[in-house]
Design goal:
Layout: E1 4-8, E2 11-18, E3 26-27, E4 35-41, E5 46-54, H1 72-86, E6 89-90, E7 102-105, E8 108-111, E9 113-122, E10 125-138, E11 141-150, E12 161-166, H2 204-220, H3 256-263, E13 268-274, E14 277-281, E15 291-292, E16 300-301, H4 305-317, E17 339-342, E18 356-359, E19 367-371, E20 376-377, E21 383-388, E22 397-403, E23 406-408, E24 416-421, E25 427-431, E26 435-441, E27 447-453, E28 456-457, E29 476-479, E30 485-490, E31 495-501, E32 505-513, E33 523-526, E34 530-536, E35 542-548, E36 553-561, E37 570-574, E38 577-584, E39 587-593, E40 597-603, E41 612-615, E42 622-627, E43 634-639, E44 643-649, E45 658-660, E46 666-671, E47 677-682, E48 686-692
Parallel strand pairs: 7-12
Antiparallel strand pairs: 1-2, 2-12, 3-4, 4-5, 5-11, 6-9, 7-8, 9-10, 10-11, 13-14, 15-16, 17-24, 18-19, 18-24, 19-21, 20-21, 21-22, 22-23, 25-26, 26-27, 27-28, 29-30, 30-31, 31-32, 33-34, 34-35, 35-36, 37-38, 38-39, 39-40, 41-42, 42-43, 43-44, 45-46, 46-47, 47-48
């Protein structure tokens, strides 16, 4: 069997593993706190890793003490105790005895241990794994070798054969330190033509008139016309929302005014930052590390990997800190706002900036990080994703690999299992007779929009050149019969915010706080006399606030019950009847109000995103859109006397689709895996997906 090589601490090693796992090892970066190399395969899950702990150091990914001579039995005991606490108990089917399991680590034949139990290889549900472990004391370091396999219904795991040696230098190093990073390509669900098919192309005179009207419409919103080939507006390339310094730091960067007196070591930034989130050190922290309360919840150790992710979740989403190690930060998430996403290797299913990753399904501590930029990925699903982290790399930055749409260890060195995702879908609505407005939360945290018709959209602009951020949620928009626009979003401290356009922009207005933070972005609908806003509460129920034109007052927020919602609601008002849709356990749920609320389970699933609904003004048909589970693409369910589920087109995205119908057509907008705006367009049949140089949205 061909040995696979990797480099740790400047030394080239060769590993031979049977049964084999994959053709590549992913080692951590030189200088990282934890020196580990991992090889992983999926479906079923198999993983082998080698962790080196030089005397006087401790790997941050394991619940073990500082490495020291003659500490092999102590390490084995600590690992077994940590696994036992996680539910992986000593295996009866493979007894630990001199015959098995045995591994050869740098010339030493060592006896190990094995446990069986649940592991969150897929973060939404546990699966049974067998974990084999060995510890060797060689040349001033303790080595942990681990082989894990998903049992997949089998009762008896097969002890693997593992050998690790120092490799002679070679010119080419298969499976070495480098992770291929292809050149960035614009990614969408399918091929993305920049112009519509010839059947939709207008004659020159009609197109000129259309462009003139587009210029007029776009100009009233402060934009300018463009088409599918234009470049994104420079302002949209801004990448910093600037969360500001956490209040519990007391005005000192990285809490140094408190950290230094407590430890005798100064705290400072490692260099990496993302939208105001900074990675702090030292790494690892000195003995007597401090633990810091964020004002509520359990104390969090500075500067462990978990501190960074919990600080981001607190500042960005208002999530009170909770007890979890790095491998549990996703599985133990107690909120409703973010969605747990499995690393299943499905086309288009990738993390977005701001998503929180967990690593190490069979590690005893694991790792966590925050995604800091859009993935760089080619059409085959190969590439990488930048991350910001603590207690790992010297700079506070690293990258996760992507292979055939599966997340791989990259230069972190341990296996990613899944992530917490905040959908940031665009919001769309129609002007009579044929204009569309699309709004989104920009990468600068402010409200952005584009105005268009057909497949021509104006350059991105901030309404009234606003600085209305930071927005804590994606926006929602509704347009009344007079073409007035009403845009809602969650603002700072959980307040429901509104801006409205009646020839000029007004607002934003603070409509009141909702007991901390809202559980989801809002969804809006308007009738001739009333504005309605719905959202998912932090308790999982449906909430509503509404403005009555005749009284001139807002009512709410109020809980309508009707839970549990498993997604942001999608809503509209059609002929004075309010319709609200959401996901519950993979089914599409509908609620409608006409004197009293009624609900119905439409099935139509399994669905994997918040739904969005539009009513065709020509036929009065309701069109509901959502992503299918497993990355199956965009689906719809259409009501015109009876519900008719259907398939729109392939390709998943980091956001749910947003529906609109300007008359004579129905459109579904969504955020692509590159962060830019995409559209499926239906006239007599579905066409697209069209990609627009508008974003990142």
């Amino acid at each position: 069997m061909l040995a696979q090589t990797f480099t740790l601490n400047g030394v080239l090693y060769a590993a031979t593993v049977s049964p084999p796992v994959s053709s590549q090892f992913y080692p951590s970066q030189a200088g990282d706190v934890t020196q580990v190399a991992t090889s992983v395969a999926w479906n079923p899950f198999r993983e082998v890793s080698f962790t080196q702990a030089v005397y006087g150091t401790a790997p941050g990914t394991e619940a073990v003490p500082v490495a020291a001579p003659a500490a092999v039995s102590g390490y084995l005991h600590a690992l077994a105790a940590a696994h036992d606490q996680q539910g992986c108990t000593a295996s009866a089917s493979v007894p630990v005895n001199p015959a098995s399991p045995v591994a050869t680590i740098l010339g030493q034949s060592v006896i190990g241990q094995v446990c069986e139990g649940p592991a969150y290889v897929y973060v939404t549900q546990p699966t049974t794994v067998a974990v084999f472990e060995w510890v060797a004391d060689v040349d001033g370091a303790l080595w942990i070798a681990r082989y894990s396999e998903e049992l997949d219904g089998r009762s008896t795991p097969v002890p693997p054969s593992i050998t690790l040696t120092v490799a002679p230098p070679v010119a080419a190093q298969p499976g070495g330190n480098s992770v291929p990073t292809p050149a960035p390509t614009l990614q969408g669900p399918e091929a993305t033509p920049s112009t519509p098919p010839s059947t939709e192309t207008s004659p020159a005179s009609s197109q000129a008139a259309s462009n003139a009207q587009l210029a007029t419409t776009a100009a009233r919103h402060g934009g300018s016309p463009t088409n599918g080939n234009a470049s994104p507006a420079p302002d949209m390339l801004m990448s910093s929302i600037g969360l500001g310094m956490p209040s519990w730091w007391g005005g000192s960067l990285c809490d140094d005014n408190r950290y230094f007196p407590a430890t005798g070591t100064h705290a400072s930034t490692l260099g990496a930052s993302f939208q105001g989130l900074v990675a702090c050190g030292p790494r690892p922290g000195p003995t007597g590390r401090t633990c810091q309360s964020f004002g509520s919840g359990p104390c969090v150790e500075e500067w462990q990997c978990v501190e960074l992710s919990l600080r981001w979740l607190d500042q960005q989403y208002g999530q009170t800190p909770y007890g979890a190690n790095g491998s549990q930060i996703v599985t133990k998430y107690p909120g409703h706002r973010l969605t747990m996403v499995n690393n299943l290797g499905v086309r288009g299913i990738l993390p977005a900036p701001g998503d929180v990753l967990s690593f190490g399904p069979t590690n005893t501590a694991g790792h966590t990080a925050v995604v800091s930029a859009w993935p760089t990925v080619d059409g085959n699903g190969n590439g990488s994703i930048p991350i910001i982290e603590e207690n790992a790399s010297a700079t506070g930055s690293g990258s996760v690999g992507i292979s055939s749409w599966s997340l791989m260890p990259g230069n972190v060195g341990i296996t990613p299992t899944g992530w917490l995702h905040d959908q940031n879908p665009p919001a769309s609505a129609s002007h009579s007779p044929s204009w569309q407005v699309v709004f989104w939360r920009g990468s600068d945290g402010n409200l952005w929009e584009s105005v268009g018709s057909g497949t021509s959209f104006g350059s991105p602009s901030r309404p009234a050149n606003n600085t209305w951020g930071p927005m804590w949620s994606a926006p929602s928009v509704a347009v009344d019969a007079a073409n007035n626009e009403y845009v809602f979003w969650e603002g700072a401290n959980g307040a429901l915010m509104e801006a409205w356009w009646t020839g000029t922009w007004n607002g934003p207005a603070n409509l009141g706080s909702y007991s901390g933070h809202m559980g989801s972005a809002p969804s809006a609908g308007v009738s001739s006399s009333q504005q309605n806003v719905w959202w998912q509460g932090t308790d999982g129920n449906l909430y509503e606030a509404f403005y009555n034109d005749s009284t001139g007052q807002w009512t709410g927020p109020m809980s309508l019950g009707l839970g549990h919602l498993d997604s942001q609601p999608g809503a509209t008002d059609a002929g004075g009847v309010q319709f609200v849709f959401w996901d519950r356990g993979g089914d599409l749920i509908e609620a409608w109000y006409s004197g009293a609320w009624q609900t119905s389970d439409l099935g139509a699933g399994p669905i994997a995103s918040a739904p969005s609904v539009a009513v065709d003004p020509t036929t009065a048909a309701q069109w509901v859109f959502f992503d299918g589970q497993g990355g199956g693409g965009v689906f719809d369910d259409v009501y015109s006397g009876s519900w008719q589920p259907g398939y729109v087109g392939g390709g998943a995205s980091p956001s749910s689709p947003s529906a609109t119908s300007p008359g004579g057509e129905v459109d579904a907008f969504f955020q692509g895996t590159d962060g830019y705006l995409y559209e499926w367009r239906h006239t007599s049949s579905w066409q697209g997906a069209y990609g627009y140089p508008i974003g990142p949205v």
